[in-house]
Amino acid sequence: MELSWTRSADTVPDPHAETVDRVQLPDMAARERFPEMAAPGYSVHILDILGNVVWANARADDAFLPGGIATVGWKWERAWPATRRLAVRDALDRARSCGTAQFAFEASNEQGRGGLWTVNLSRLPLSAAPGDYLIVIARPAEITSGGSAGLPRPPGIDALTGLPTTGCFNRELARRIAERRQNRTRFALAIIDIDGFKRLNHRIGSEPCDVMLTAFASGVAQQGHEGFYLARTGGDEFSLVVDASDGAAAAQERVATMIQRGVSPISGLDQTSDFSASVGISMFPGDARDAQELTRFAHTALRAAKAEARGSCVRFDGSMRQELQRQSSMLEMARLAIAGDRLQPYYQPKVDLRSGVVVGLEALLRWKSTDGVVHFPGSIAAAFDEPEIARSISDLMLRKVVADVSAWHRAGSALPVAINASPADFRDTGFAERLLQQVDRAGLPTRLFELEVTEGVFLGAGASDVGTALRRLSAAGIRIALDDFGTGYASLSHLKQHPVDAIKIDRSFVSNVATDAEDRAIVGAMVSLSHNLAIEVVAEGIETAGQAALLREMGCQIGQGYLFGRAVPGFEVPTLLRRHLIPA
Q1: Can you give the pLDDT of all 584 residues of the chain as single tens digits?
Q2: What is the domain extent for residue 132?
Q3: What CATH number did the domain enclosing 257 receive?
Q4: Is residue 337 part of a domain?
């Protein structure tokens, strides 16, 4: 097959004819791969590797372009106004090197075919024609968002948003790095995450959320500057490359503006007034040496942004590098401790403040390094944010606690033991069933176990599954305690919505209860609330006899803290249980 462009500039091709002058339609394989060629509403051009138009369908010459007609024999970029040509050339370069590129623009012309269009460029192999070609497919926004034909996307293009996907983005990132190493220019990588998207999805449904993702992607793409590249790299995650030749601060401001303009139309709606996106940015070559490091640093900055506030835009800096190294060290220590079976539950007593008798235990994580030193869980805190490691820690701790409780039960003990559950546990929907299976296999009554949860589990990833898991465990006979009560968000609503048997007053209130009138009033209110709701109340962090006496007078039933003893390994618990723990 021969492709040529020897017809006059004003000739309009017929896409349903086998030939138009000397310009032939692409072969069958190409038409099967890109059915948009013959579909109504799509503008399609085929370009040679230099960007010359060698074929176009009828809609392509229908003046959709803002600068005029891109007819056969013309340079495709000439159809664009001068203000857009640099961006168009960049898209051509990306398609040649990466295999695909995408951008959006607002068309406006006298023929009334304005509005938002999405343009996809893909490499096009033609079996009967030598050389390399590009196919350019332009879609109106109503087709891009799923309003027509159900046609398949070109490879590497996300079906929902029309953006490039992860593989294509990674290739583009590698190309940019290689290019920047040669010409010593700078660019920024931004990782964008929609805040609380899972909760939003549960609240209003997947279809409205799909519309919002598409609108957000289009809104950001419309703000694109020369050299930008936007891709959808996760369910609610986007990756963006922007030029940073004018400095990191200017690049950060540019990204923040693009995101804000993408968010604004959506956050103005009633159902999505809280719609926002957080951004982490890293710079090449200033921050990183390669794509992997650049991406890791951008994700680190994104975590810092999400910890700061919804809708934050944070740039990676040197302090984050130190934090990243510290987190990597934590993860390695956790992996080694798991592999070496060096995690161990320690048990701290909970004491009846009237009699001083131990009425329960809380299992706390400790781990030993190879030199025998016992460490607190804070030294491996990053491990609880890694799903696989967190699950390994949880399973190992649960197995050992159940084994200890089983041994004490055989010896005649009937004390309940509290196990701490982290947000990571609830990200695994099988957590409740695994806990119950462990208890059942040991032949133990569920009343010997209590699950302590902090209010953070109701806000993090997997929060929607927390209520289901707690109701399942409560129905099976496991007590539920709300830890660090009063320090989180919507504490009272949690008491109403979930099966809570006990609240634990946070040590931040207890530590000053004897000297601070406000803390004393808050603790008194919590104790009164627990009595009215018939919920057990436990005061944490009791360190002095004066605190214990005051809490007892206020009606607090149970206390826990260094006054009664630090956490001890399981083999010391029988001795602990024989002690009278209220100081004389």
Answers
A1: 333 333 333 333 333 333 333 334 455 455 555 665 655 567 888 888 888 888 887 666 554 454 445 567 778 888 787 767 777 887 787 777 666 777 766 665 544 455 556 787 887 766 555 567 888 888 765 544 444 444 444 556 777 777 888 888 888 899 889 888 777 788 999 999 998 887 676 567 667 788 888 888 878 877 766 678 888 888 889 999 998 989 999 999 999 999 988 887 675 555 666 788 999 999 999 888 899 889 989 999 998 998 888 899 999 988 887 877 888 899 999 999 999 999 999 999 999 999 989 999 999 999 999 999 999 999 998 898 788 899 999 999 999 999 999 999 998 888 899 999 987 788 778 899 999 999 999 999 999 999 999 876 765 445 557 888 999 999 999 999 998 876 654 456 678 788 999 999 988 889 999 998 888 998 999 899 999 999 999 999 999 999 999 999 999 999 999 999 999 999 999 888 776 554 44
A2: 19-144
A3: 3.30.70.270
A4: no
User: Are residues 471 and 533 located together in one domain of the fold?
Assistant: yes
Reading the block at residue 444, the tokens are 């133990």
The answer to whether position 12 is within a domain reads no
Report DSSP letters for 401-439, one per residue: HHHHHHHHHHTT----EEEEE-HHHHHSTTHHHHHHHHH
Q: How far apart are CA 261 and CA 538, in angstroms?
A: 49
pTM: 0.55
Q: What whole-number distance in Å separates Cα of residue 264 and Cα of residue 311?
A: 11
CA pair distance 90, 232, nearest whole angstrom: 19
CATH of the domain at 381: 3.20.20.450
Q: Indicate the residue type of 246.
A: D
Is position 5 within any domain?
A: no
Split into its structural domains, the chain has a count of 3
Q: Note whether 420 and 558 are same-domain residues.
A: yes
